[in-house]
Amino acid sequence: MPTTKRQSWADARSTFKRDQRRAIALAAIELLVEGGSAELTMSTIADRAGISRQTLYRYFPDLASVLAASVEGMEEADAELRAWVREASSPREQLHRCAEALMDAGASHGASVEELMAALPPQARDALHDHERRTVGLLAEVLRALAADGSCDYAGDPEIDAALVLGLIVAATDESRERAIEWIDKLTS
């Protein structure tokens, strides 16, 4: 079926709207992470996204809806992380990829996890909990592969150790990244 100009325009408009919503959601998360909930207003989100407040209100009626939209893409991002981690040549490299990616994702957080959670509406908090479960699941999968690989003497419990590894990753700062990786390697060797 040939595409018409009208269909092409509708597709382009739909893509633009989706991209605009993503940019707004990303701006909200960036602001929340950088300054906590005190710095988060519809005006600061619009400024960060490079749009007017009027445009922002066309996409979202209030702050809660912006925050809910900001976590909608987490499942897709988690799937991309899983695919990228699985591309690594060995379970040890998979573990390092996972740790580095998660540390990079959390590197600029100025707000505490509790502050982030308190600022989110209930459905967004649920999405963050789902994200955490997927992350622990990915780490457990990598640890199981590491145990089966035979390249080390790891004999821990992947289900328990995955949460410990995630704790090390979350606690790591820019200054302690290398040390966190060393501890992860000690835990899994």
What is the assembly state of the chains in this entry? single chain
Q: How many helical elements? A: 10
Estimate what percentage of residues fall within beta strands.
Answer: under 5%
What is the CA-atom radius of gyration, in angstroms? 20 Å
Q: Using DSSP, what is the number of strands?
A: 0
CATH topology of the largest domain: Tetracycline Repressor, domain 2
User: What would CATH call the architecture of the largest domain?
Assistant: Orthogonal Bundle
- What's the pLDDT, averaged over the residues? 85
CATH-assigned homologous superfamily of the largest domain = Tetracycline Repressor, domain 2
The CATH class of the largest domain: Mainly Alpha
For the sheet with most strands, the description reads: none
Please provide the ordered H/E string of secondary-structure elements: HHHHHHHHHH
- Overall helicity: over 70%
Secondary structural class: mainly alpha
**Unreliable residue runs:** none
The termini sit apart by: 58 Å
Number of domains: 2
Could you walk me through the main structural features you see in this protein, from its secondary elements to its overall organization?
The protein has 189 residues and is mainly alpha-helical. It has two domains: 5-70, Tetracycline Repressor, domain 2; 74-187, Orthogonal Bundle (Tetracycline Repressor, domain 2), CATH 1.10.357. Helix content is 76%, strand content 0%. The chain has ten helices and no strands. The longest helix is centred in the first third of the chain and has 31 residues, at 5-35. The termini are far apart. The model has no long low-confidence stretch (mean pLDDT 85).
